[in-house]
Amino acid sequence: MGRILRVDLSSEEIRVNKLESEVLRKFIGGVGLAAKIIYDEVKPETPPLDPENKLVFMTGPLTGTLVPCTGRYVVCAKSPLTNAWGESHSSGFWARELKRAGYDGIIVEGESEKPVYLIINDEDVRIEDANEFWGKGCPETEESIKKRLGEEYKVACIGPAGEKLVRFASIINDGGRAAGRCGMGAVMGSKKLKAIAVKGTKDIPMKDPKRIRSILKRIYPQIMSFPTTQIYASYGTSGELLSFYEYGDVPIKNFSLGKWDKIDMISGETYNAVMVKAKRACWNCPIACWRYVKVDEGPYAGLELERGPEYETLTALGSLLLNERLDIIVKANSLCNYYGLDTISTGVSIAFAMECFEKGVITPQDAMGLNLKWGDSEAILKMIEFIGERKGLGDILAEGVKRASEKIGKGSEKFAMHVKGLEMPMHDPRAFKGMGLQYAVSNRGACHLQGLILRIEQGQRMTDLKIYERLNRFETKGKGKVLAIVQNWHEVLESLIICKFLGIPPGHIPGLYALTTGIYVTLEELLEAGERIYNVKRMFNVKCGITRKDDVLPYRIMNERLSEGGTLGHIISLEELNAMLDEYYEARGWDENGVPREETLKRLGLP
Questions:
Q1: Beta-bridge partners for 56
Q2: CA distance 161 to 19
Q3: Which residue, 139, 359, 576, 583, has fewest beta-carbon neighbours within 10 Å?
């Protein structure tokens, strides 16, 4: 669309900035454009919850077009969890609506004196009082705004957790899709911005839609035949839970166990048979991995979620806590959506608290009378409320497990599962050592999505990216070079923006990009853009003080071997991590401390 909204909440000034073609060629859009804006405009010493921090919502050049699975957006800022680069992604329909209103993104700066929300209706953009919505949960906020403005509006909003600056607060859109990671909801709350409601009526331009349709028709059978795609279509993301379990990849009891005799009770097969009532899909998605769920019996009978738990939520609020009850997982997910909480960070924080309780590090009095035993349903649900409201122990956990462990002490740092302050996602890196490297070096902290090297370690080949070698999941050699390649590619996907679940072969992407935008580039040029974007994020982190000392893994992963399960006897030792880091830094053109070398930055056109 060639335009970005710039909204200053301090002065209530609203402007439209035009995008320069040269910038788009170098940074594509999406997360790439957001990275350039934040690097240029946010000083590294800026506190994340300060008015000077900027919150950047960005779509990509493919968003809302004929290309399938392009209903996504990214939101970026300096993260209140990590004090460094922060980004989060969400899907649904909100992003397409923003494009149809005529904008590629929104830069939110400053801070309002009172709660407000932003209304975008094509050229009519205004800031309105949000006092009546402040304090409300995300579902009620979305419903109230739609009732006032019209059902055709798409709403992205925060709940009480964002208002109370919980450091892993999320932004919720389209009835339960979440931009969950890195605390972007807290940044939005610090600016007293409750919601952004969007309605658009414009056509999204495409250079040659006829040829786009022709390419898609030709490659659709190949895309939909991928085993992973078929699993997602049949069971959603939960469909891989049992296979991940066999690898030893599913975290159990705060990453301390290798087996659990109740894993079948939360499997994708059980979940789909017991809870799932229908499939749902994002904009223009042929896979439909969403699941509409309803609890049929028990204390929460009748509870419905339009966007039910996915793999990460099933495990973070299930196996990680030794909770086998699907109805409690659905209820917990519902509470996280109400408060606007990242389900991954929430689960890891509660697991940390339960282990503290088990080890006597915190007392029943510290736990506000709760019996924080593993799997206790009441404790799980109450702790979500306490975190969302910042009450008692919940106030400590709302800071994230890194800060919580520093405050509680007594050796709890050894089982605080995070990297750079971002709680670990639901893949145990002892099962895929390349994934451990990915967690360690990811710009936003522990991240399973920025590279997905575990797919290569499972045997996937990406010949378009010249990845031919087989990588044993327990070996370390060769992981650094391959990780750099797949990370660069994922920066491309997150800049275009296109869902990774679709799996369009990389060789087809330049053509689809050109036929949509009229910008003709080679696959190599796209990969170089991805490398450029990755390095911009790293340089922002370097300016925030991030170096090799921060590219580490939790104590448990590096020192505690599990006695059973798919990772039997394996850890990622300091020696192994250092060897992978050396190879990775060399592949990236960084020095031994993980700082991009001057010649690397010059090669990428980054003065």
A1: 76, 107
A2: 34
A3: 359
- For residues 122 and 102, the answer to whether their CB atoms sit within 8 Å is yes
Task: Answer whether residue 502 shows pLDDT above 90.
Answer: no
Render 447-461 in DSSP notation, one character per residue: -SSSS-THHHHTT--
How many angstroms separate the CA atoms of 502 and 59, rounded? 18
Q: Which residues contact 331 (CB under 8 A, 6 or more apart)?
A: 295, 300, 303, 381
468 confidence band (pLDDT: 50, 70, 90)? confident
- Of 122, 118, 87, which Cα lies nearest the Cα of 1? 122
pLDDT of residue 33: 98
d(CA 544, CA 293): 42
Q: Do 530 and 489 touch, CB atoms closer than 8 A?
A: yes
Tell me the residue type at 310: E
Beta bridge partners of 171: 179
For residue 503, the SS3 value is coil
What 8-state DSSP symbol labels residue 177?
E
Both structure tokens of 353? 């608290």
d(CA 607, CA 160): 42
- Selection from 283, 224, 213 nearest residue 502 by Cα: 224
In whole angstroms, what is the distance from residue 26 CA to residue 532 CA?
A: 8
Is 517:501 a contact under the CB 8 Å cutoff? no
List of residues 6+ apart from 214 with CB closer than 8 A: none
Torsion angle defined by CA atoms of residues 386, 390, 395 and 399, in that order, rounded to the nearest 10 degrees: 110
Task: Say how far apart CA 512 and CA 580 lie, in whole Å.
Answer: 35
Q: What is the pLDDT of residue 503?
A: 86
Q: Which tens digit of pLDDT belongs to each residue from 350-366?
A: 999 999 999 999 999 99
Predicted confidence at residue 148, as pLDDT, reads 97
Q: Which pLDDT does position 437 carry in this prediction?
A: 98
566-583 confidence digits (pLDDT tens) = 999 999 999 999 999 999
Buried b (16+ CB within 10 A) or exposed e, 232-244: bbebbbbbbbbeb
What average pLDDT score do residues 463-472 get?
90
The owner of tokens 């010649």 is: 599
- HSE of 62 in the Cβ direction (CA atoms, 13 Å)? 27
Q: Is 580 exposed, middle or buried (CB count within 10 Å of its CB: 0-12, 13-18, 19+)?
A: buried
Average pLDDT over residues 117-124: 98
Q: Locate all alpha helices (DSSP H) within 9-166, ordered by sequence.
A: 21-27, 30-41, 94-100, 138-149, 160-163
Max alpha carbon distance in the chain (Å)? 66
